[in-house]
Write a structure and sequence with these properties.
Elements (H helix, E strand, L loop, with lengths): L1 H28 L1
Length: 30
């Protein structure tokens, strides 16, 4: 039961990092 939760956690972490890196140029532009 802990496996899907861990999987979702990693996926959420990956999405956060992806959006952070995607928004990085905009932060430098401003």
């Amino acid at each position: 039961v802990a496996l899907p939760i861990n999987e979702n956690y990693l996926e959420d972490r990956r999405l956060k990092i992806f959006f952070y890196l995607k928004n990085l140029p905009f932060q430098f532009a401003v």
